[in-house]
Write the structure tokens for this entry.
Amino acid sequence: MWNKISKPLRVLLGLALLIAVSMAGYTLAAYVKTVNLFQGGWVGPKYFAFEVNGNSESQTVAPGGSASFPFSVSNYNNGGTAQVPLNVSISITYPQSLAGTGAVEAKLTRGGSTLATSTNGTLECNGAALPQNVQTTDKYTLTLTWLNADIAYLGTVKTSTFNPSDIKIRVSGYQ
């Protein structure tokens, strides 16, 4: 039967088939849609605020006496409040002895509760977690006590100035 149809008619049928197939493609394209999700918005990190404050002066410590150094940790500043919860990690280094005699004990407290103690010149512990979207300030106190001082070895030095710059307090806030 195909041989009986003339060549011009075959060309016309082929074109008609091509047109029909191409129209089907346009019909399917009518069901495809695009959504522009980020046309008016933005994607960025949540606000992270973390502040540590403390101010101490040189103190005189007698054998057996203590010196206290308060500091605070906050999850807000002038820019706003942290939008993510923060875990707090505290690392402290301090002189191990005063006037070449005795040892120094460090004790870190928060709200009357002892978090950690040490006599080896370093102290590390976790502080309280800071919540998200709620302005929170936690107050900590580092207390250094001069232990086991031998007065005979002190000679003319009866007291020793303890300079806070010898104490390094590093507070980290992480998610």
About this structure: Residues 10 and 16 are 10 Å apart (CA to CA). The chain has a mean pLDDT of 79. Helices lie at 7-29, 151-154. Residues 7-29 form the longest helix (23 residues).
